[in-house]
UniProtKB/TrEMBL annotation:
Keyword Membrane: yes
Keywords, ordered alphabetically: Cell membrane, Membrane, Transmembrane, Transmembrane helix
Any Pfam family hit: RDD
Listed name of the protein: RDD family protein
Species of the source: Aquariibacter lacus
TM annotation in the entry: 16-37, 49-66, 118-138
All residue ranges annotated as the RDD domain in the record: 7-153
Chief subcellular location: membrane
InterPro entries on file: Pra-immunoreactive, RDD
GO cellular component: plasma membrane
Length: 167
C-alpha cells in the first residue's frame, strides 16, 4: 500500500501555528482547573506543580488525538495525519515518544533564553522563531522530509487532501 505524500513544510508549520492558538485555550482551562483543585491564589505559587500538570494535559491532548484518529484539531483543519511507519495507527508507545521528542521544538530556545537571562520579550521570541526555522528546515535532508522526532519515534506525517496521488 502506497502512503500519501509528506505535506510541504509550510503546511506543517501553519498547522503548528494554529495548534499553538488552540493550545492556548487548553492550557488556560487546565491552569484554571489546577488553581481550583489546589487552591492556588498566585501565579508563582505551586509553579512546578502547575508546569507538571500542564505537561500531562498536553500529553493527554496530543497522545489521545494521535491514537484516536491520527489528527489533532489543527491537523484536521490542515489535512495532516500522523501514521506509523507502516501507514497504520501509531501505537501508544510511539505517540508518547513522539510527544516527548517533539519538545525539541521548544526546549533549546527556552534554554538559550534562560541562559542569556532574556525575559519573555522579543529576544526569546526571536530565538524560538529562528529555532523553528532551523529545525523545520533540517527536515529537507531527512528521509521522506519528516521531522527528526517522527524519524526517531517511527511515525510520519502524511497529507490527507483527497486530490493527491499516493507517493
Amino acid at each position: 500500500m502506497a502512503l500519501p505524500p509528506t505535506p510541504p513544510l509550510r503546511r506543517r508549520l501553519a498547522a503548528l501555528l494554529y495548534e499553538a492558538v488552540l493550545l492556548f485555550a487548553v492550557t488556560m482551562f487546565a491552569g484554571f482547573l489546577y488553581a481550583v483543585i489546589t487552591g492556588q491564589r498566585h501565579g508563582l505559587e505551586g509553579r512546578s506543580g502547575l508546569q507538571a500538570w500542564a505537561f500531562l494535559v498536553l500529553a493527554a491532548y496530543f497522545v489521545g488525538f494521535w491514537r484516536k484518529g491520527g489528527q489533532t484539531l489543527a491537523m484536521q483543519t490542515w489535512r495532516l495525519r500522523l501514521v506509523a511507519r507502516d501507514g497504520g495507527r501509531p501505537r501508544l508507545g510511539q505517540a508518547l515518544l513522539r510527544f516527548v521528542l517533539s519538545w525539541i521544538w521548544v526546549l533549546p530556545p527556552l534554554a538559550l533564553s534562560w541562559a542569556m537571562g532574556w525575559t519573555a520579550g522579543g529576544s526569546a521570541s526571536l530565538s524560538l522563531a529562528a529555532w523553528v526555522l532551523v529545525y523545520g528546515g533540517l527536515s529537507r535532508w531527512l528521509p521522506e522530509r519528516q521531522f527528526a522526532h517522527d524519524l526517531l519515534s517511527g511515525t510520519r506525517l502524511v497529507d490527507t487532501r483527497p486530490d493527491l496521488p499516493a507517493a
